[in-house]
Amino acid sequence: MRINAQAVAAAFWLSLAAFLIVAGRDLGIGSASEPGSGFLVFWGGVLIALFAAGMAVESVRGAPESLASLWKGARADRVLIVSAALAAYAVSLTTLGFLLATPPLMLVLLRVVDPVPWRQAVPIALGATLVVWWVLARLLAIQLPAGPLG
Amino acid sequence: MPEILASVGQGFGVALQPLNLLACFIGVFIGTLVGVLPGIGPISAMSLLLPVTLSGTPEAGIIMMAGIYYGSMYGGSTTSILVNIPGEAASVVTCLDGHQMARQGRAGPALGMAALSSFIAGTLAIIALMFVAPALSRVAIAFGPAEYFSLMVLGLTLLAFLTQGAILKSLIMATAGGVIGLIGLDSITAQPRLTFDRLELFDGIGLVPLVMGLFGVAEVLTNIERRLSRDVIAARIGSLLPTRDDWRASAAPIGRGTVLGFLLGILPGGGAVIASFAAYALERRFSRDPGRFGRGAIEGVAAPEAANNAAAGGAFIPLMTLGIPPNVVMALLLGAFVVHGLQPGPLMMTQNAGLFWGIVASMYVGNVMLLVLNLPLIGMWVQLLRLPYNLLFPLILLFSIVGVYASQNNVFDIYVMIGFGLFGYLCRKFGYEPAPMVLGFVLGPMLENNLRKALILSQGELSGFLTRPISAACLLLAAALLVSATLPTLRRKRDAIALEEGG
């Protein structure tokens, strides 16, 4: 089935707009002479809804782009791998600490996407981690998560 | 005049202090570096270094950040000319004739002209800044909440109008950015808004993770999908000095590019990217032989390089005099002011005269440093361009993570950065530009504050925005832009000049 890409985007914005309108109302819109906390959240939602409705109308005119065509010829798997690696890194950073969590992330980035030979990847991963740690922790006195090494 | 000269003298006293000289050098060096390297631009570099500026004086930090911005304008041309890939967005147009000159064995004069026209325009823009900023700040003192609100509306509309792609998409991004900027405690009632009971969100979303995500991470995710091919000019570069004929052909384009760039830089929503394209288009129109453009015309290098550097200087005016950032880079600079407890605006020139004039004077110094850096170090930049992207992007991501973490010492910000990185990647896929979102994010809370104040002062009378001349003019201009975007003829013209801002 051919899915209209811009219609998907318009649906996303309309959902966000609906959420903002409800959230703005719950926060309290107030009045024109005494605007409440939700005043701009509410009107922001209304504006997004109007723009998204315009997008929805435009998306059915002419020759709409399909969702699949946006990723035609692209290596979307690389995007997924890098995003997953970054998320895993963020999760493990507090428990493992900077010095233990960073080299595996660097190795994944250096090896999985467009492989760098091991003899280069390992020293770069370790070297970059140590240099960044030294500059931040020692030179700039910024506290990095220490993990079990702390 | 004597007043300004005395102030400039005071500024040089600040700029020439050893620490500030070092900060200026580091700034222009990093700026040139990120300008040279495709895939990392001044926005990512400034976000990354924002936390570092906290450890020094406000002068040193802001001088360094400013140096990164105008330094990147210089560096971007090197990559455009030698590799045919713009080092940063404002140098896209330099590829057209610069790379053709390089292919014809004239890489040296192209690089030389890019550096020299940047220097001339950058210096002239600073001189203009010296005279325009004090005059505008005197006018800006009379601005009330209604004027500020309307000016911000105009800025966001103008940015949406000039950004590439459908104007509706830009308006959605600007509005969504504005709402994201409201996350956290309401500045008037202290009521938590859109925080989902997460303590980390009570202070709002940070500018650094948002920008690093939308620009740094999203740029990497977009680049790794496809292999970046690079065709670095291998031949020896030779003499960098342009010939007498080159100067004759370029003198007027440099002048026109400087004036146009400076004016477009001042406009809220304008900036270096738009300026470089507009200057190129203008020169083609002025040329007796427009067919030469795109085939190695030196005016095609001189005019856009002059324009983007002049725009970089002009962009400081709305920030310094009104406290309103006209583009994303200036929004980051505003962030640097705020972290140091300073508020740019009409009173800055009287309350922080040393800082203001110190920054202006540091730009003179920085321009000289850039000329010295760009001409003899071309060989080093060429070597750097040979660094493959599969080695570069893991380092960019590592620096982004570290920069984001260091800004607040908070792992939550890394999640925010990754989230906005994915969102930014999808935005690029669906044809949404991230720049209006960032400007909306920065201006959102200021806009809300001024709107609420204006409404309270006028007791809810919306006509208050139209009875004040400056406010009315801004709103009418914004409305005219929106209407004009729907007219087919103007829409085609807009599409021809519409460009991505930032990078």
TrEMBL record, chain A:
TM annotation in the entry: 40-58, 79-101, 121-141
Pfam family, one: TctB
Domain DUF1468 span(s) in chain numbering: 8-145
Record carries keyword Nucleus: no
Entry keywords, A to Z: Membrane, Transmembrane, Transmembrane helix
Statement: the UniProt record of this protein carries the keyword Transcription regulation: no
InterPro entries, per database record: DUF1468
Name of this chain's protein: Tripartite tricarboxylate transporter TctB family protein
Phylogenetic classification of the source organism: Bacteria, Pseudomonadati, Pseudomonadota, Alphaproteobacteria, Hyphomicrobiales
Automatic annotation (TrEMBL), chain B:
Domain DUF112, residue spans: 21-439
Listed transmembrane segments: 20-40, 110-133, 139-162, 171-189, 201-221, 258-282, 324-342, 354-375, 387-407, 414-431, 470-490
Pfam families on file: TctA
Classification via InterPro entries: DUF112_TM (IPR002823)
Annotated keywords: Membrane, Transmembrane, Transmembrane helix
Name by which UniProt lists this protein: Tripartite tricarboxylate transporter permease
Source species of the chain: Enterovirga aerilata
